[in-house]
């Protein structure tokens, strides 16, 4: 054998490009540019979203320094859960895991609402009237089936779709900039004044929602070289930031800073496509809308995998029932965890179909903002966890930047979290006296505290299980059935 | 066409038993997915060296004795581990052996020893399925039946059987093999793995679990 064992091992590693593609497809750029930008403009009535994307990207870049450094030292399956339990103690880890389960499940299930945007197009092309929930159920079947098998080949398909999405967003942006509204190009969108005021929190919260998925890069910390994870995280944050900022800014420029908010409020089905139709012709809007659906489908598959992985990691550590922590011998996938998630999604889709609620605003947007709050909560907890963990595990690689970055990130993320909670009604798009306004943050607080209490109960009643929390696959497999 | 001539099989090679335990004893198809099969076989070959005391696992790292082994495949793996210091951890070696296609090497060893024959099965509209089946499919079930029988009594498993059971548990194949037993056998297997498995073998099982879990939760690209 001419190659050394280390070379053989390196040959099996995931490349930087692989990590970038997976992470970026989890963030679903087109969905963000089409849906979040429009709803953000409509709900907040402010133009500051492009600047908010840049600020959040900067905060996340600082955050990722500690995050990636920690990812190298600990096993990976339940990313946030493992990090919080190692950094802030095991009860906090269980609390984080419950929040993560709630947040990711909400995000994933909410996406089914966006699949319904295909219905008007089906009507236009084929003249058939399909209710949104039929489309959601079709998507559900696809996700449920793919979730139980290794998606090697479909992942390649998703790659092509991702490339098409990015190309489409760039094309729209160029067309937007080539056809600005009266008055020509301006700095509207990037001006600090556009961001300040009561809309600051919601805009930053929406911008975080755009980047959700970037944290998936740490999943590869064992499969890819440490440098690849670091590079991929930076490329993702930088690339997504450039794409989002360009797209949202060019949208504002093309629609006109004075009229864009009114346009967004009157056409919730994405101002991006209205502009594309005007600038490039109907074909561009139609291609974009089809890609939007595939992008949502990609996000559904990706978040489904995340949910299943969390349940799996928790089942393996016996924080959730142990049967969730088993893989299926024929496929090697966390089958029981995947099926449980699919069942939950099915129940919600059926409930919305029976209740007759609006899939786009009451399912997709609501669930997205709820999930974003959960992810922010997790980011804040993880940021503090990395501060403590890296202080206790110093080594020669700990340069000044690595010592300085985690505390800065922790403070910044906490500040954003406070801003978001303070103006949560605006973000949700509900009146201040709506029960959701405090209901959602309180639910997250209760879930987090519930998890912490459960962690403490485990320490008393099942010390063996408590010891194994956060150790991941390195622990002894006793009782791993 | 004359019937193939089967030599008498030499019992007891862990990797061979693992391969056979993965087979469906009705159809002869391999029931373990390729990654799980390869990782299990890699660990089993290392396990053979552990069982013959040519190798120990200390704090996750492999250490091999400087004594030659009679079996060709075992000797090949022993020399790889002996000469190559770029990788030391058991889990890394399992992945290296997977990368060097240990499954094919084990199949060749079994073919040469006459434990399996190569056949192919035609399938509608698909490539023919290539199968490595033992002369009698009941051989495939033998190890599983033995383990299940001993656990049901319950009676202590022999060291090779216990390691085999540990690897089958790591790959999830234990559910099928113990499916007809009382639910208590799983606890019994847990207990025996905890109490009777020597430290080297126990670490080997742990590292196999770790390799498989990491593979299972990582999306493929």
UniProtKB/TrEMBL annotation, chain A:
Protein name: Amino acid transporter
Main location: membrane
Its membrane topology: Multi-pass membrane protein
Coiled coil feature spans: none
Highest taxon of the lineage: Bacteria
Compartments, as annotated in UniProt: Cell membrane
Keyword Signal: no
One Gene Ontology term, aspect cellular component: plasma membrane
Record-annotated membrane-spanning stretches: 20-43, 49-68, 80-104, 130-148, 155-175, 195-214, 234-252, 290-314, 335-357, 363-387, 408-426, 438-457
Keywords on record: Cell membrane, Membrane, Transmembrane, Transmembrane helix
Cell membrane recorded as keyword: yes
Pfam family name, one: AA_permease_2
Molecular function terms, GO-annotated: transmembrane transporter activity
From TrEMBL, chain B:
Location in the cell: Golgi apparatus membrane
Alphabetically ordered keywords of this record: Golgi apparatus, Lipid-binding, Membrane
UniProt cross-references to Gene3D superfamilies, sorted A to Z: yeast vps74-n-term truncation variant domain like
Pfam families in the cross-refs: GPP34
Membrane topology according to the record: Peripheral membrane protein
Main location (coarse class): Golgi
InterPro entries in alphabetical order: GPP34-like, GPP34-like_sf
GO CC aspect terms: cytoplasm; endomembrane system
Keyword Plastid tagged: no
A GO MF term: phosphatidylinositol-4-phosphate binding
UniProt-recorded name of the protein: Golgi phosphoprotein 3 (GPP34)
Organism: Actinokineospora terrae
């Amino acid at each position: 054998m001419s190659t050394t064992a280390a070379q053989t091992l390196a040959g099996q590693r995931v490349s930087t490009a692989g990590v970038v593609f997976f992470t970026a497809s989890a963030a679903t750029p087109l969905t963000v540019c089409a849906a979040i930008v429009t709803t953000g403009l409509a709900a907040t009535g402010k133009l500051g979203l492009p600047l908010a994307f840049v600020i959040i990207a900067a905060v996340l870049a600082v955050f990722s320094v500690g995050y990636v450094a920690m990812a190298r030292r600990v096993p990976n399956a339940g990313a946030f859960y493992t990090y919080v339990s190692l950094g802030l103690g095991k009860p906090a880890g269980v609390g984080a895991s419950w929040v993560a389960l709630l947040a990711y499940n909400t995000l994933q299930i909410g996406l089914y609402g966006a699949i319904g945007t295909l219905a008007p197009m089906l009507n236009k092309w084929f003249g058939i009237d399909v209710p949104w929930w039929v489309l959601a159920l079709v998507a559900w079947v696809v996700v449920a089936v793919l979730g139980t098998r290794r998606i090697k080949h479909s992942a390649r398909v998703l790659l092509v779709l991702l490339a098409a999405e990015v190309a489409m967003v760039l094309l729209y942006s160029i067309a937007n900039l080539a056809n600005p509204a009266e008055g020509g190009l301006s700095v509207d969108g990037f001006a600090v004044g556009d961001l300040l005021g009561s809309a600051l929190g919601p805009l930053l919260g929406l911008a975080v929602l755009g980047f959700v998925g970037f944290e998936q890069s740490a999943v590869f910390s064992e499969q890819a070289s440490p440098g690849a994870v670091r590079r991929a995280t930076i490329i993702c944050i930088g690339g997504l930031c450039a794409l989002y900022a360009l797209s949202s800014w060019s949208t504002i420029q093309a629609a006109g800073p004075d009229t864009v908010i009114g346009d967004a409020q009157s056409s919730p089905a994405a101002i991006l496509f209205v502009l594309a139709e005007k600038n490039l012709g109907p074909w561009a809007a139609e291609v974009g809308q089809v890609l939007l659906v595939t992008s949502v489908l990609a996000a559904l598959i990706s978040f489904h995998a995340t949910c299943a992985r969390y349940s799996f990691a928790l089942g393996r550590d016996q924080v959730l029932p142990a049967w969730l922590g088993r893989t299926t011998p024929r496929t090697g996938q966390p089958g029981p965890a995947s099926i449980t998630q699919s069942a939950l999604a099915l129940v919600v889709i059926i409930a919305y179909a029976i209740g007759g609620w609006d899939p786009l605003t009451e399912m997709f947007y609501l669930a997205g903002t709820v999930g974003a709050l959960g992810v922010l909560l997790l980011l804040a907890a993880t940021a503090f966890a990395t501060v403590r963990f890296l202080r206790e595990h110093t080594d020669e690689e700990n340069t000044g930047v690595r010592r300085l970055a985690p505390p800065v990130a922790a403070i910044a993320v906490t500040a954003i979290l406070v801003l978001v909670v303070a103006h949560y009604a605006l973000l949700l798009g509900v009146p201040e006296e709506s029960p959701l306004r405090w209901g959602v943050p309180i639910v997250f607080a209760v879930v987090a505290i519930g998890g912490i209490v459960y962690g403490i109960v485990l320490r008393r009643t099942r010390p063996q299980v408590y010891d194994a929390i956060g150790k991941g696959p390195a622990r002894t497999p006793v009782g791993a059935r | 066409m004359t019937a193939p001539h089967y030599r008498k099989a030499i019992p007891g090679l862990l990797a061979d038993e693992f391969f056979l335990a993965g087979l469906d004893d009705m159809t002869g198809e391999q029931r373990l997915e390729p990654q799980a099969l390869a990782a299990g076989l890699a660990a089993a070959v290392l396990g053979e060296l552990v069982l013959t005391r040519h190798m120990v696992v200390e704090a996750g790292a492999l250490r091999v004795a400087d004594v030659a082994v009679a079996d060709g495949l075992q000797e090949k793996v022993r020399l790889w581990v002996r000469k190559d210091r770029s990788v030391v951890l058991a889990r890394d070696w399992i992945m290296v052996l997977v990368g060097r296609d240990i499954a094919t090497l084990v199949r060749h060893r079994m073919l040469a020893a006459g434990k399996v024959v190569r056949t192919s099965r035609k399938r509608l509209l698909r490539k023919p399925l290539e199968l490595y089946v033992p002369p009698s499919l009941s051989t495939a079930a033998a190890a599983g039946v033995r383990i299940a029988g001993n656990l049901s009594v319950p009676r202590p498993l022999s060291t090779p059987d216990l390691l085999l059971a540990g690897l089958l548990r790591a790959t999830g194949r234990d559910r099928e093999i113990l499916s007809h037993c009382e639910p208590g056998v799983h606890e019994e297997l847990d207990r025996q793995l905890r109490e009777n498995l020597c430290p080297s073998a126990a670490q080997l099982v742990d590292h196999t679990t770790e390799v498989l879990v990491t593979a299972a939760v990582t999306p493929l690209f």
